[in-house]
Design a protein that fits this description.
Helices cover about 35% and strands about 20% of the residues. With about 400 residues, it is of the alpha/beta class. The strands form 3 sheets. A 7-stranded mixed beta sheet has the order 6-5-4-7-8-11-10. This is Methyltransferase family protein.
Amino acid sequence: MICRFDKKPIETEFLDLFNSPPSNSFLAEEDLDKPEVFYPLKLYVSERTFLVQLEEYKKAGEIFDHDYVYFSSYSSSWLDHAKTYVEKIVDTLNLTQDSFVVEIASNDGYLLRNFVSKQIPCLGIEPTANTAAAAEKLGIRTITKFFGKNLANELAEDKKADLIIGNNVFAHVPDINDFVSGLKTLLSEKGTINLEFPHLLCLMREGQFDTVYHEHFWYFSLYALLPVFEAHDLFVYDVEQLKTHGGSLRLYIAHNGDTSKKTLPSVGNTLDEEIKFGLNKLSTYREFPKKVLNIKLQLLEFLVDCKKHNKTVYGYGAAAKGNTLLNYCGVKQDLLPKVIDASPHKIGKFLPGSHIPVVAESEIKKDQPDYILILPWNLQTEITDQLSYIKSWGGQFIIPIPELTVVK
């Protein structure tokens, strides 16, 4: 069943990335000879609301299990992003020690620790037990549950939140009606909800198809989301366009009737930009697969040419987006022998589908590959700075999206 917001069937399929295993289902060595489950990876767009989504082939409860491998704190740029946000929002909303902040999908405490240091009461809600445990070690009270209307009702009996934060979680929610209803229930009378998520406009404009994976049920534009919030008596009063994840939106949302909030020009400006691009036209979606195929062909041609000329290419960053890219392109160990990652939770494991081993950074210095393919291209600056030493032997970086680029 498609986990849609609108009741009209979603009739238009506009991107088929074929079958793929869940992008964060890394394998241990003993699992390599066992059967691996692949699920369809197709995007659909509603002809009525222009909401974009995947079918829920793999349940959220199965994806976000106890052995979840993504820990936010292993990205220095993401930590900086979180710290900068907290400094700004505390000042903007005049948050104090009498305020209450809730983060949904709080992961390992990468963000809430900044509120803890300011002695602002906060609560994390995180369904993955291992990342929640890491947050608890930082002194962050964390509830290990999925967020929705039922949990919001329980929490609201104690205290409502002056700020609710959801960074890169909204797209992971199968039932957005239940989720948004929970947000409204938990929000204090004059409170603000901040939701941050990759922007569909950037995905389509820049060919960022690798951000499509089974954890992401939804791919949002402001155009498609405004009716969702209106249906729950909420309104978007401000929008920030961010550079994170290749281009994201941060929405500022409040209760209808909250006269302390006024709708700012950023809302209309973002809508105008989306409409100008054509996110309200089916023809725009039908053209997108051509761009995706071109990216695939460029990458394969480059890797095959390197193989022919005895040039070595290693990947960097065992990110979910990298797994989508490699599996859609059919890249295996023969073309990309290793992928390097900084997280000890991934090193020693193997990428789903491609079965490429994940190794430590020391392998780069030991083997001196000719090229490093940066899979989390949104962290290009961070990674190229970190690995700048490859230039000492003539190594170069490859950026695959929006088009294959060699960075010297």
